[in-house]
Amino acid sequence: MNFYEILVFVYVIVALMLIGFVLIQQGKGADMGASFGSGGSNTVFGSTGSGNFLTRTTAILATLFFVISLILGGQTADKEKGLNDWQNIEVPIIEEGVDSDVPATQPATKAAVESDAPASVEPKEGDTPN
C-alpha cells in the first residue's frame, strides 16, 4: 500500500467516526439525562459530562476530515491524468484502394449537382409554407 491508499483508508475511518459522534450528540435544548438515562451520566465522562467530551472529539474529527480532504485533493491534482476508455479504443484505418473490377467514378462537382436539380419546385395543394 502506498501513502495515498493509506490516507484514503484513514479518511474513510475518520468520516465514519465523525458521522457517529454527530449522531450521538444531543441538541442544545435536550436534557443530558435523555441520552444516557437518569442523572448518572455525568460520572461516565467526568464532572463536566459527556457534552464537553463529544464536542471536543467532534471538533478534532472534523479538523482531521478537512485536513485529509485537502491533502487528498492535492495528491489527486498532482497525478497525471490518464486516458479515458474512449481514447484507448483503436479505430481501424480503412485505406481507399482502387478495385479493378469496379469502374472508377468522378466526384460530382458543384456545377453538375446544380444542373441536375429542378429549377423550381411548386408547392402541392394543402402544403403550408415554413
Provide the descriptors you would attach to this structure in a database record.
0% strand, 130 residues, mainly alpha, single chain
Radius of gyration: 37 Å
Summarize the main sheet.
Answer: none
Q: What's the helix-strand series?
A: HHHHH
Q: How far from one another are the termini?
A: 66 Å
Look at the helices and sheets and give the structural class: mainly alpha
Q: Using DSSP, what is the number of strands? A: 0
Question: What integer is the average pLDDT?
Answer: 73
The coarse overall form would be: elongated
The helical percent reads: 40-55%
What share of residues are in beta strands? Answer: under 5%
Total number of helical segments? 5
Contiguous low-pLDDT stretches (5 residues minimum) are: none
What's this, in brief?
By secondary structure, the protein is mostly helical. The protein is built from 5 helices and no strands.
Structure explained in plain terms:
The protein has 130 residues and is an all-alpha fold. Helices cover 51% and strands 0% of the residues. The protein contains 5 helices and no strands. The protein has helices at 3-24, 33-36, 50-78, 85-88, 110-116. It is elongated. The two termini are 66 Å apart. The mean pLDDT is 73.
Helix and strand topology:
Layout: H1 3-24, H2 33-36, H3 50-78, H4 85-88, H5 110-116
